[in-house]
Amino acid sequence: MGESSHVLTPSFNRSVQVEGRDERLGTAGGAVLLREIMQLSGLRRFLANRLQDPRRQAAIWYPIEELVCAYLLLIAQGWRHGQDADRLRHAPALCISATQTRGPTAVDQPLPSQPTLSRTLDILARGDNRVILAEALAALAGTGLRARRGGHRKRAITVDIDGLAFPVKGHQPGSAWNGHHGCRCYDPLIASSAELGDMLGAVLRSGNAGSAAGAKPFILDVVERAERHLCQVALIRLDAGFPSEELLAALEANGTPYIARLKANPALDRRSAPYRKRPRGRPSHEPRLWCVDLSYQAGPWSTPRRVVLVLKERAEDRELDRFYLVTSIAPERMTAEEILARYRQRGTAESYMGELKEVCHPALSATDRPKTRYADRPVVSAGQLPSQAFARNEALLLLNQLAYQVLHIARRALETARGEGVSLHWLRRALLVIGTRVVTGSRQLKIIIENRFADLWVAVIERLYRWRWPPP
Q: Which residues belong to any copy of the Transposase DDE domain (predicted)?
């Protein structure tokens, strides 16, 4: 049984004794399930074949894909690499899931240490590797989609682009005070799909960046990846801060349809004034809503565009409430009411982005604080440049999106099996962070979980094995 140490005899019940033992116990049994998803989807192979590793390969202990796998498992389970990696180095389920070692000896392969994971982030922060992480995210989403659909992509999907504030403590490079959010933060652009629940990309921005700062190249890259991995046509949905002549013209030249909210302005209000009247007759008991198609050309625009005027009646107001949507979709393809219905699905995308922030909880905290000593010798000049720390945070954000995507594939399998929606919070409690015991044999490792959770595991695994997994 191994040595034991007495920890506690609680005063409320003296018959209870808490001991610490050297047994293979843990609470990260779900790591095995997450690793199986990475294996089925080909994510590890994708990363191994593409990530650039500048280390001398003959001297390394952990391959780059194994380091990334350890990162994703820690994030998905709710741990922090900077705070918990060393304490969890010998957690049996994590060790088995992170290593590429086969056989019973896998349980004896410790996780990478915290300093090793920190140096890994420096490697992933390289410009070419950040591109690979973004590509891996789209490939993973596409692989999961095609597996569920018998190997086929969708005809079209809607991609939502929005900012998502991540508060920081201290003065991390690139962070800034944001008056709207009332905190010092980063304000990255996040790409996601409301109808699929997938994360499709991210680019880190300063906390005081404008809504549309850096949006054009990011959106075009996301569209290109989405149409390569998930669909034939990607429709872009945007909030009011994004529409500009440069972005809208680029989307039109690319053949990418879009729906975006427009900020009201006096010229647009004058153009819509004849239509902002209540219908004749007695008002109904319930507030009414209707849409009007307009053609409008703003001052900076190079051409007139289709604008949908949305009018809302409120019983307590004499004036009609209104807002505007601009779109490149012709009326014969989608009516004004259908344009409004499609735009209103943005709320679903925002809920998925909220899960990314609350469940994965990206800790964007790399700093440029320099070292003062190294190997017991004073360092004259050291430390990261601000641009390097910023790149580390962007790589960390992409890793969190990848971890979210692995969790989301598990969620889709469980939802399909059970026929009901599941939150990532519930998924983690019921499927991942569960009591685990590892029994080592001569040729076999047996992972024992509580029987009351086994039916959920069976439901997920059976569904995953029914899907048709293509190479990413």
A: 10-357
Model confidence, pTM: 0.89
Token pair, residue 297, equals 């050309």
Kindly report the backbone phi and psi dihedral angles of residue 156, in degrees, each rounded to the nearest multiple of 5, phi listed first. Answer: -150, 150
Q: What is the pLDDT of residue 382?
A: 44
Give the pLDDT score at 18: 72
pLDDT at 370: 53
Amino acid at 432: L
Q: Is 55 helix (H, G, I), strand (E, B) or coil?
A: coil
pLDDT in the model for residue 381: 45
Q: How many CB atoms are closer than 10 A to CB 237?
A: 24
347: tokens are 């709320």
Tokens at 111, concatenated:
């996780």
pLDDT for res 462 = 92
Tokens of 238: 């945007």
Q: What pLDDT is stored for residue 120 in this prediction?
A: 92
According to DSSP, residue 274 is labeled: G
- What residue ranges of the chain have pLDDT lower than 70? 1-4, 13, 19-25, 82, 279, 281-284, 315-318, 365-386, 442, 472
Q: Output the CA torsion 94→100→105→111 (10° steps).
A: -40
- Secondary structure class of 233 (helix, strand, coil): strand
Distance CA 424, CA 410 (A): 9
What are the residues facing 154 on neighbouring strands? 231
Residue 290's CB is within 10 A of a number of other CB atoms, namely 15
Give the number of other Cβ atoms within 10 Å of residue 18's Cβ.
10
pLDDT the model gives residue 237: 96
**Sheet bearing 183-186, strands edge to edge:** 166-167, 183-186, 176-178
| Confidence at residue 1, expressed as pLDDT on a 0 to 100 scale | 44
C-alpha 351, offset from chain centre: 12
Tell me which H or E stretch contains 93.
Answer: helix 92-98
Residues pairing with 157 in the sheet: 234
Strand 231-238 to 154-163 pairing:
parallel
The set of long-range contacts for 279-283, using a CB threshold of 8 Å and a minimum separation of 24, is: 283/313, 283/315
Contact 135, 214 (CB under 8 A): no
Q: How many other C-beta atoms can be found within 10 angstroms of the C-beta atom of residue 265?
A: 12
> DSSP characters for 104-162?
GGGGGSPPPPHHHHHHHHHHHTSHHHHHHHHHHHHHHHHHHHHHHTTT--EEEEEEEEE
